[in-house]
Amino acid sequence: MADDILWGKDKIAYHILWVVHYVRLTQLGVCNGFKSRIEHHLAQDASQRCEPPWDFYIKIKESWYFTMLNDLDLISHNFPKDIKIYPIADVHLGAMEHAEEEWSAFLKKVKAEDSYLILAGDLLNNGIRSCKFVNPFDEQIRPRDAKRRMVKYLEPIRDRILCVVSGNHERRTYKDDDQDLTYDICSKLDIEELYRENIAYMRIGVGERNDSRRKTKKAINVYTFAVTHGSGGGIYTGAAVNRDERFGNVIDGLDCLVTGHVHKGFVTKPSKIIIDTRNNVVKMGHYTVVSAVSWLNYGGYAARGMLLPAHVCDPQVIHLSDTYDNKKITTWW
Question: In what order do the strands lie in the sheet containing 195-196?
Fold first, then answer.
């Protein structure tokens, strides 16, 4: 029986799985009817608990798959020590120019080390007929096969992914037939709660210290991120920098903005003026802007459009410090 295979024979394992279901349903804001059944199960004596029925499990899974979270729902992570993050965008898997060898080697590197990924769109090239900029006959593989291959690439490091957003290439299909390819990938990886369609806002707590008042642990430093694929032309690097910084200025409390789209890797550290009425001072607030590199070798559309070659396949590193009283974002190549 499928349910015997899924749930096993251990009653403790049953209970743990029920708790996991309840936590995820609470995070996703799923129907209270499902949650009340789980609450009833958790309230029972351990000896009386039984395995959840298979049909109920299917309903829970369906509710996950069809509940896409709003862009304004904050993603939250906590880590016991400092972390290293790679911003990834514009992989364009399926394009003739996609650097598959470098992409595969990079993912093996991530798996071997203690680092994390932000996925900022255009994971797939998705060359379909309705797009005037792409010839579908130039694709290495069909979009549906590219989607499967991307899942296979990311599956070994699914627990290293912090958030995912769509890019303009995935939105081609979304616009034509309401199919969200990036959400499909996240669903297959079972990380739907980390996906946002347009922009992801993220809180990352780093380090641990004792909170004597609450008798719990709390983060030493807390960092805020905004992640979006980006928009506009990429001919002039300065225009892309100005556009990203202008957008970053409207997000109060932002520590780092991550974008892609223009296929030009850069890092800037803009400032803005803050009037601090609590301390009666005017001070400067700083944040970091990171535009991710692409994973496309030069040629094809870029060459036809006389676009300039750019540094590729070597993503920046974003380091979040866990040093007390020294909240700091450091970036390097």
Answer: 195-196, 161-165, 116-119, 83-88, 317-320, 329-332
The three-class DSSP label of residue 304 is helix
> How far is Cα 208 from Cα 216, in angstroms, rounded to an integer?
10
Helix ranges, 190-264 (H): 237-248
Question: Hey, what are 184's tokens?
Answer: 């499909």
Of 209, 218, 206, 208, give the one whose Cα is nearest residue 116: 206
User: Which pair of structure tokens corresponds to residue 46?
Assistant: 């351990």
3-state SS class at 204: strand
* 3 state DSSP class of 2: helix
Q: Which amino acid is at 263?
A: H
Token code pair at residue 253 = 């409390």
Distance (Å, rounded) from C-alpha 333 to C-alpha 331?
Answer: 7
CB-CB contact of 291 with 240 (8 Å)? yes
Q: Are 173 and 131 in contact (CB under 8 A)?
A: no
Radius of gyration of the chain (CA): 22
Nearest 5°: the CA angle 320, 326, 327 is: 40
Residues in CB range of 84: below 8 A, 6 or more apart = 113, 114, 115, 116, 317, 318, 319
pLDDT in tens, the chain (333 residues): 344 444 444 445 555 555 555 555 554 444 444 445 555 555 554 445 455 544 555 555 555 444 678 999 999 999 999 999 999 999 999 999 999 999 999 999 999 998 999 999 999 988 776 666 666 667 888 888 999 999 999 999 999 999 999 998 888 887 777 889 999 999 999 999 999 999 999 999 999 988 777 767 889 999 999 999 999 987 888 999 999 999 999 999 999 999 999 999 999 999 999 999 999 999 999 999 999 999 999 988 788 888 889 999 999 999 999 999 899 999 998
Dihedral sign from CA coordinates of 15, 18, 22, 23: positive
Residue 247 CB neighbour total at 10 angstroms: 18
